[in-house]
Amino acid sequence: ATITVLNGPNLNLLGLREPNHYGNKTLADIQTLLENQAQHLQHKLSFYQRNAEHELVELIHQAYFEKTDFIIINPAAFTHTSIALRDALSATKIPFIEVHLSNVYAREPFRKQSYFSDIAQGVICGLGATGYELALLAAHQILAERH
Ligand code: DQA
């Protein structure tokens, strides 16, 4: 199957950025982990990071037109603000898992609100890069059950 991984703003700074919250792995490290896992599970993986909301909206539309089967998304700060990204996922009906590296429930109160969780297949947070790997494994199982 085809799986798209989308990463929101500031995630290009992983490794440098507040390692107490986000760990020491860079986004390139996470990309390598997932590409290896996807190859092993025989999926085609596309991996993106964008700082701009409209570019993420366009990537969701692109995923739809390319008939992408599943999305794994860490919307980063847009989690707590973006009706536009939520609407793009609702409009395209691409099933998705929401991932956060940090435990958003153990931080500032504004991080407890998500525009994605109620329409996600599932939500993973607080497990660092492992959360992305678990999301890919879950996507694999969800897709396998459908066929
Ligand atoms: C994040 C959590 C968000 O609250 C924050 O704005 C991020 C990263 C995470 O992966 O833990 O940028 O999505």
Automatic annotation (TrEMBL):
The active site is at residues 22, 100. The record marks 17 as: Transition state stabilizer. One of its GO terms (molecular function) is 3-dehydroquinate dehydratase activity. One of its GO terms (biological process) is quinate catabolic process. The keyword Lyase applies. Keywords: Amino-acid biosynthesis, Aromatic amino acid biosynthesis, Lyase. InterPro entries: DHquinase_II, DHquinase_II_CS, DHquinase_II_sf. PROSITE patterns: DEHYDROQUINASE_II. It is an enzyme of class 4 (lyase). It comes from the Bacteria. It catalyses: 3-dehydroquinate = 3-dehydroshikimate + H2O. Its EC number is 4.2.1.10. Pathway: Metabolic intermediate biosynthesis; chorismate biosynthesis; chorismate from D-erythrose 4-phosphate and phosphoenolpyruvate: step 3/7. Pfam families: DHquinase_II. Substrate binds at residues 74, 80, 87, 101-102, 111. SUPFAM superfamilies: Type II 3-dehydroquinate dehydratase (SSF52304). Homododecamer. Belongs to the type-II 3-dehydroquinase family. Catalyzes a trans-dehydration via an enolate intermediate. This is 3-dehydroquinate dehydratase. It comes from Methylocucumis oryzae.
